[in-house]
Amino acid sequence: MSFSFRAAIIAATTLTLAAGIGATAPGVAAEADKTPVQAINEAATEQVPTMAESLAALEADDAEAITAEMADTSEPASHATLAAAVAAQDAVAADAELNCLAIGVYYESKGEPLEGQLAVAEVILNRAKSGRFPASVCGVLTQRGQFSFVRGGRLPQPPASARAWKTALAVAQVARDDAWDSRVSNALFFHARYVSPGWRRARVGSVGNHIFYR
Q: In tens digits, what is the pLDDT along the chain, a chain of 214 residues?
């Protein structure tokens, strides 16, 4: 329906309502001596918006609807590559869980390609969600006998200025926010290629120098 046709309908409806209200409102007897044409003209002048006003109101409503639609940012931003997703992360202080996740990425895979680092982060997160391991990232890493870099149940803290640490933090953010998936995103276990633990587990795939299992 065009704006002009809608505006005409609104104007006509408003005029009808205004006339009905006027007929039942106090003081109508005082207006009885006026001619019908005069009363209608005065009512129209006082209560009915002009065509320009009606069009302006309609355009304002449409503009608000368009603005609201454009402001809808419920869909997460996408990235063309994993490297772009990593580069887009904010360099902010990590909370305890994110810090633990980044520590795991740093000590287990800092020399790996980005996908390899992401895959390690996904293993840690998958364990925390699985119900088969501790329910927190920090708990997963400090579980006895699981990660060789952990000594006495304590996590070492990487040097804050190290470039590899900043990368690990960004990769941890990507993994936690599920902003990108590796080829082995459902893995729960991994080991370096140079060892053969003889696991009887379903192999998911390999990334960099690690082999991943379900």
A: 544 444 444 444 444 434 444 444 444 333 444 444 454 445 444 555 565 555 455 455 544 543 444 444 444 558 999 999 999 998 776 799 999 999 999 999 999 999 999 999 999 999 999 999 999 999 999 999 999 999 999 999 999 999 999 999 999 999 999 999 999 999 999 999 999 999 999 999 999 999 999 9
SS3 49: coil
| Whole-angstrom distance, CA of residue 210 vs CA of residue 157 | 23
78: left (phi > 0), else alpha (psi -120 to 50), else beta? beta
Please, are residues 31 and 39 in contact by the beta-carbon 8 Å criterion? yes
Please tell me the distance from the alpha carbon of residue 46 to that of residue 31, in angstroms, as a whole number: 14
Q: Hey, is 86 helix, strand or coil?
A: helix
The residue among 192, 89, 108 whose CA lies nearest residue 150 is 108
Task: Name the token pair of 140.
Answer: 């997963």
Query: Which backbone phi and psi does 115 adopt, to 5 degrees?
Result: -65, -35
- Ordered by start, the domain boundaries in the chain are 3-70, 82-213
pTM attached to this predicted model: 0.65
Report the candidate in 101, 79, 97 with the shortest Cα–Cα distance to residue 89.
79
Q: Which residues pair with 189 in a beta bridge?
A: 213
Write the DSSP symbol of residue 110: T
How far, in Å, are 19, 25, 141, 154, 190 from residue 28 at the CA level?
11, 6, 83, 87, 88
